[in-house]
Automatic annotation (TrEMBL), chain A:
GO terms for molecular function: 4 iron, 4 sulfur cluster binding; ATP binding; ATP-dependent FeS chaperone activity; metal ion binding. The gene is Nubp2. Its main location: cytoplasm. It comes from the Eukaryota. Keywords: 4Fe-4S, ATP-binding, Cytoplasm, Iron, Iron-sulfur, Metal-binding, Nucleotide-binding. One of its GO terms (cellular component) is axoneme. InterPro entries: Mrp-like_CS, Mrp/NBP35_ATP-bd, NUBP2/Cfd1_eukaryotes, P-loop_NTPase, YlxH/NBP35. The keyword Hydrolase does not apply. It is found in: Cytoplasm, Cytoskeleton, Cilium axoneme; Cytoplasm, Cytoskeleton, Microtubule organizing center, Centrosome, Centriole. This is NUBP2 factor. One of its GO terms (biological process) is iron-sulfur cluster assembly. It comes from Upupa epops. Heterotetramer of 2 NUBP1 and 2 NUBP2 chains. Interacts with KIFC1. Interacts with NUBP1. Component of the cytosolic iron-sulfur (Fe/S) protein assembly (CIA) machinery. Required for maturation of extramitochondrial Fe-S proteins. The NUBP1-NUBP2 heterotetramer forms a Fe-S scaffold complex, mediating the de novo assembly of an Fe-S cluster and its transfer to target apoproteins. Negatively regulates cilium formation and structure.
Automatic annotation (TrEMBL), chain B:
Component of the cytosolic iron-sulfur (Fe/S) protein assembly (CIA) machinery. Required for maturation of extramitochondrial Fe-S proteins. The NUBP1-NUBP2 heterotetramer forms a Fe-S scaffold complex, mediating the de novo assembly of an Fe-S cluster and its transfer to target apoproteins. Implicated in the regulation of centrosome duplication. Negatively regulates cilium formation and structure. The gene is Nubp1. It comes from Upupa epops (Eurasian hoopoe). GO terms for biological process: iron-sulfur cluster assembly. It is found in: Cytoplasm; Nucleus. This is NUBP1 factor. It holds the Pfam family ParA.
Length: 266, 312
């Protein structure tokens, strides 16, 4: 039986109970950072209602092709070291809503996991929609045979986000998914004009949650208009803006993931 | 043209060909059966106006807006306001309304909403969870069942405005809502977005969803629209409107643009404290913007009512 994930070394899920905290952003920047460290990375976007990944790589006009082993992922670069799969590539009209109930979503997710010919990858990052429902249950169950490395949970500092991410931690525990750590996104904003730092979305919730839950805190990523702009334009933020506010934190997250996997193999 | 998910033609009309929901509609698994519909209609008979708060995108401020809208409308003590939170996986409303830890009570006439004020009642799955760590890990059908229960078994009483806060997306919960609420008259949907294209691309889908299920769109609110530094007063576009923001999208899609709300740390703070932004920061630009938008929604609902009465 065909096993399209046989060549994938490490599977990492990016989760959050909360919407809009930056799962796709973190998935994208983690992929770019790992790529710049010489790794081959794939991103599987299982957000069927709001697939953000294609645009973040400027690939939104691409289509997906079939090969003998299934679907060929969309390659971002000439060197074919970053590949993507998303329902965004399958939609004829991008503004059409995918109004599917659970069973149909589950079926497509199973296909995405089994039928994409990823080839050899160091990392497969799975970007998810917010919540703890059909997509998440199906994704974790379908990935179980491939023993994912674990999940990165993304939150913003304020209580309302942390509240949902606590539930996501329970989800991970219930489904036996290891938590690699918590990332706190949108941590603060440093005014580019006067350098005043404002905690627009409150402060400290991510680190406190990590402590409370006994999981690693992977770092705080500040708000960075240059990062938002890069994502809008599908640019490589890690390559183009190494001096920007969010860069150090994003690079640090990738480094911790790399350290974690090299520890594993030694 | 979609015949409507609870109509007799659901799944069978020519327009249904190619619709992802076709099979489900054709099997009648969609809408409430006539007995259920009658039950819902009876229960929700006292609801004068129903407004859904939607977005294709997560984290743009639906719950924040719903909470503000509820407080804003309830400021008129003569009005009875109800806030229903159908985000089953991520119920934010209890915290935002200062009702964390509250439980739901049963009475002879059904579940009682939890009251923030005498004229402002709230219902959320959050009230059914015993611990803040409890996760609701349900698949679609079970979520739909709870939404039906919320609409059928909560004793809302006479309500001037029922506000329904939703989770992001266009899936089970949204279909269920539209189908179950078809027994009642929905004034329309308020759609929330942030300025950047990453949000707008999801919001366009939501607008198309509304059109497909024939849900009127009251208008779009652009949240997190710019940030004015409290120290130097310069504005930064943290979430840049690279494709013209919500205003341009509304022009293109012929949808009403209700207004912009800036980023303001006071918003997050009030939400975390469970207090009304409108009371906590009455003079902030964010409050002013929300008040203007709320007024426009009120005007829309009043016009609607007037037109309905004229028809009768």
């Amino acid at each position: 039986e065909r096993n399209n994930l046989a060549g994938v070394q490490h599977v990492i899920l990016v989760l959050s109970g909360k919407g809009g905290v930056g799962k796709s952003t973190i998935s994208t920047e983690l992929a770019l950072s790992l790529h710049h460290s010489g790794k081959k990375v794939g991103i599987l976007d299982v957000d069927l209602c709001g697939p953000s990944i294609p645009r973040m790589f400027s690939m939104q006009d691409n289509a997906v092709h079939q090969c003998d082993n299934g679907w060929v992922p969309v390659f971002v670069d000439q060197g074919k070291s970053i590949s993507l799969m998303s329902i965004g590539f399958l939609l004829e009209k991008p503004d059409d809503a995918v109004v599917w109930r659970g069973p149909k979503k589950n079926a497509l997710i199973k296909q995405f996991i089994a039928d994409v010919a990823w080839g050899d990858l160091d990392f497969l990052i799975v970007d998810t929609p917010p919540g703890t429902s059909d997509e998440h249950i199906s994704t974790v169950e379908a990935l179980r045979p491939y023993k994912p490395l674990g999940a990165i949970l993304v939150t913003t500092p304020q209580a309302v986000s942390v509240g949902d991410v606590r539930r996501e931690l329970t989800f991970c525990k219930k489904l036996g998914l290891r938590v690699l750590g918590i990332v706190e996104n949108m941590s603060s904003f440093v005014c580019p004009h006067c350098s005043e730092c404002t905690n627009i979305f409150s402060k400290g919730g991510g680190e406190e949650l990590a402590k409370h839950a006994g999981v690693p805190f992977l770092g705080s990523v500040p708000l960075d208009p240059q990062l938002s702009q890069s994502l809008e334009e599908g640019r490589d933020f890690i390559q183009e803006f190494p001096k920007s506010a969010a860069f150090p934190a994003l690079a640090h997250i990738a480094q911790q993931i790399l350290d974690g996997t090299s520890q594993q193999s030694s | 043209e979609c015949p409507g998910t609870s109509s007799a033609q659901a799944g069978r009309a020519a327009a249904c060909q190619g619709c992802p929901n076709q099979r489900l509609c054709a099997t009648g698994a969609g809408g409430p059966d006539p007995a259920e519909a009658a039950e819902l209609r009876s229960r929700l008979r006292g609801v004068k106006h129903a407004v859904l708060v939607l977005s294709g995108k997560g984290g743009v401020g639906k719950s924040t807006f719903s909470a503000c809208l509820a407080h804003g409308l309830a400021a008129d003590e003569a009005k009875q306001v109800a806030l229903l939170d159908v985000d089953i996986c991520g119920p934010s409303i209890p915290k935002m309304m200062g009702l964390e830890g509250e439980q739901v009570h049963q009475s002879g006439s059904g579940w009682s909403p939890v009251y923030v004020e005498e004229n402002l009642g709230v219902m959320s799955v959050g009230f059914l969870l015993s611990s803040p760590d409890d996760a609701v890990i349900w698949r679609g059908p079970k979520k739909n069942g709870l939404i039906k229960q919320f609409l059928r078994d909560v004793d809302w009483g006479e309500v001037d405005y029922l506000i329904v806060d939703t989770p992001p997306g266009t899936s089970d919960e949204h279909l269920a809502l539209v189908q179950y609420l078809s027994a009642v008259h929905i004034d329309g949907a308020v759609i929330i977005t942030t300025p950047q294209e990453v949000s707008l691309q999801d919001v366009r889908k939501e607008i198309n969803f509304c059109r497909k299920v024939k849900l009127p769109i009251i208008g779009v609110v652009e949240n997190m629209s710019g940030f004015v530094c409290p120290k130097c007063k310069n504005e930064s576009q943290i979430f840049p409107p690279t494709t013209g923001g919500a205003e341009k999208m509304c022009q293109n899609l012929n949808v009403s643009f209700l207004g912009k709300v800036p980023l303001d740390p006071q918003i997050g703070r009030s939400c975390d404290k469970g207090l009304s932004l409108l009371s906590e920061a009455p003079d902030s630009l964010a409050t002013l913007s929300y008040r203007n938008i709320i007024q426009r929604i009120q005007e829309y609902c009043d016009q609607h009512h007037f037109q309905e009465e004229k028809i009768i």
